[in-house]
Give the backbone structure.
Amino acid sequence: MRPKLHSMNILHDSSAAARVPRGWAPLALGFRPFFLLAAIVAVLLLVSWSFVWRGRLHPAYYDAVAWHAHEMLFGYTTAVIAGFLLTAVRNWSGVQTWTGARLAGLAAVWLAARILPWIDGVSAVVVVVVDTAFLPLLAASLVRPLWLATNRVNRVIVPLLGAMAVANLSSHLQLLGVMHGVGDMRRVMLELVLLLLVLVAGRVLPSFTQNAIPTFRTRGRRWVEVAAFATLAPVVIAELLPQSPPALGASAWALFGTVHVLRLSGWFDRRVLQVPVLWVLHAGYVWLCVGALLNAAALSGWASPSSALHALTIGAIGVFTIGMMARVTRGHTGRPIDVEPRMTIAFLLINGAVIVRVFAVWLLPRHHATWIDLSAAMWVTAFAVFLAGHAKMLVRPRVDGRPG
């Protein structure tokens, strides 16, 4: 028998929902514009990348690799982060986050940062100022609701977004040749995103699993929870040190990956595989573990560094975020949580994109270009399916008549 998925608000605080002001639906709550923009840019970025890496398209500001890396992290990923946090913090605190004109302004800053690097003649200073403004504005929008809430732990989100903003500015300074003496700040941004993923997964995966499988009880171990966060610090330190010994980074990634295998094992039950909107999140966490261990192997000379990187980006980030966007969109538009069959296909496609990009490119390098194109096509199709099923939900009022 397939486990029943209860219609529980995934970020629940029912008292907050009643206080959400009514207004134009696409700007009624943060997940709406940012999930829509994230899905659109997920398609456009990978379609464009197929031309950029072949030299047929040229961003005016970035070189090809820098544009791809920057936009996947500071473009797509920060849009998902914004949509999630503006919705979750509202529900955690019971205090309204930005909606309406302020939400539109925040989205406009994000969108301008995606467009400006393609326009010839735009000053690098303008590109940097607009792009680096987004994360501080997002953090500022969350200060009041987080500090009015009783749970002080959630306040860590503000300095985390601040650290991401510093990583963004530093990555621009490195690109412009102004900043030297530290490691690649885009890698540091990746690790900060993984920290947020670890934080969010710890809040939602155990409860999601128990909600779907009432007879199952997740097993949490305090030392594992502490280590899940603490073991990321050596990874970041090794990344920041430009002359860091490979053995240091390999050991740090191996420890991080092992701890997260243990963490996930306490949340998993085989009945998870019967619920697509749940197994996709578990799959994203599996890719986090795989990516960490592959990074350890790559630093030891046993695996492809590019494959290790993409296990974390396409895998951990891509798979987890499309699953969260699907679930949040359905839950916060008043629909049943479980997804339609076509989204199961999308979840399979995006996992297929990771497998091809991580393993086929590494193990069968003679067909490198073919594998890149196939992986990109699977990613694009997955997000196109998401848009086909969820775009209308994101721009229309809730089906249950409630505001938000």
Remarks:
- The radius of gyration is 20 Å.
- Residues 14-395 form a domain with the Cytochrome C Oxidase; Chain A fold (CATH 1.20.210.10).
- The chain is about 70% helix and 0% strand.
